[in-house]
Specification:
Blueprint (H helix, E strand, L loop, with lengths): L2 H27 L8 E5 L2 E8 L12 H24 L3 H24 L2 E7 L12 H19 L13
Antiparallel strand pairs: 1-2, 2-3
């Protein structure tokens, strides 16, 4: 396995571990494990326990065991697809972004397997205005990774490899 690909998988591992460590700290050490519990960290940021039974933006709520395991299977297939993409990708920036997506996906998949929901806790707000739903490290990693991939796909053109001269 080449160095950039290894770095991508290392990013995935680090983000997965960081996500799980922060969730354990918030729900264990800080004791935020009941709906509605909250700690103000900054005037614009709270730690707030929210069990997310859905996927992105709370869509596809898994309100039954069948839906829960269906979401585990669906997100597992997506994570496997990202890992497969990483095994074929050559661009180091794309590999890092894919590692972010994979690490975040695995963190949220483990939550759904263990608890039946994803532990969300980061509540960024400006007064009454909340630009985001309550989220976690995994959600942030997935979002940033996807934005990097989109930006690179839309705005970055790779230089073609130089062609060998036929006259040489």
């Amino acid at each position: 396995m080449n160095r950039p690909r290894l770095n991508g998988f290392l990013v995935a591992l680090i983000l997965f571990l960081a996500d799980q460590a922060v969730k354990a700290y918030v729900t264990g050490v800080l004791g935020l494990d009941q709906i509605g519990e909250s700690i103000t960290v900054l005037p614009i940021f709270n730690l707030k326990f929210v069990p997310n039974v859905g996927v992105s933006l709370g869509m596809l709520a898994a309100d039954s065991d069948a839906m829960r395991w269906g979401l585990v299977a669906l997100t597992g297939i997506i994570a496997a697809g990202v890992a497969w993409w990483m095994l074929r990708e050559k661009n180091r920036f794309d590999l890092i972004a894919l590692g972010m997506v994979l690490g975040g996906a695995l963190g949220n998949i483990l939550d759904r397997v263990r608890f039946g929901y994803v532990v969300d806790y980061a509540d960024l707000h400006f007064g009454d205005w909340q630009p985001f739903l309550v989220f976690n490290v995994a959600d942030a990693a997935i979002t940033i990774g996807v934005l990097i991939l989109l930006a690179r796909a839309l705005f970055v053109r790779e230089k073609p490899a130089p062609r060998e001269s036929l006259n040489a």
